[in-house]
Amino acid sequence: MEQNLTPHNSKQRVLVGLFAGLLSFIFSLGLMAAPAKATGVYDLPSLGVGSSTWVVDSAEVISLANEGKLSSALKQLAQKTGNEVRMVVIRRLDFDETIDSFADKLFANWYPTPEERANETLLVMDTLTNSTAIRTGEAVKAIMSDEIAKSVASETVAIPLREGNKYNQALLEASDRLVAVLSGQPDPGPPSQQELNIESTFASAEETDDRSATVWVVVLLVLATAIPMATYFWYVGLPGR
After folding, report:
1. Domain coverage including residue 222
2. Which residue ranges traverse the bilayer (predicted)?
3. CB atoms within 10 A of CB 142
């Protein structure tokens, strides 16, 4: 028996479809507004001596072109000198982790023995706080002092970050300095800097994340209130009609 759809049933179906679409939309926005997942040591690729991977950018802040430049320069350094440098960029650390503890764990995980660590250098950056750490093996220390290594992390990398989150510039300049020193050339030193304000005028990554989350929450509240009301009045009709 053929069943005809009444206007009432038609409106019900449209209403259900609208609510289903609204729920799907809110869910997708919620995913977008969710804070970035923290990165642990075992979330990264398992690398070791001789690996062909030189840059691990899980924060996705380095352009493909610059990642290619970094990889090419570090590969050539390894082929000419045997000294390997790897750079790791993550978006955020676990709440109980510091950049130093993370760098220690990652260095030990990738290079478990003193022999494996000997000619290795590891530079790690966290983009949420813009903190940086560097670790070197014993053979590297004979070429590059701990003072120079610390300067690479605290000046060569940190200065471009303080001047406006210039991640690409920071790693390219760090690569240039590390390649020079580990190739036996004179240390070019950190980049020159203008007068640096202790209080940065740029919003931190954490502040930016908080603001973005607040905007999405407001959008969700407006949608959750306005769309059902508009749908209700469309369904039942405006008062007085």
Report:
1. 203-241
2. 213-235
3. 10
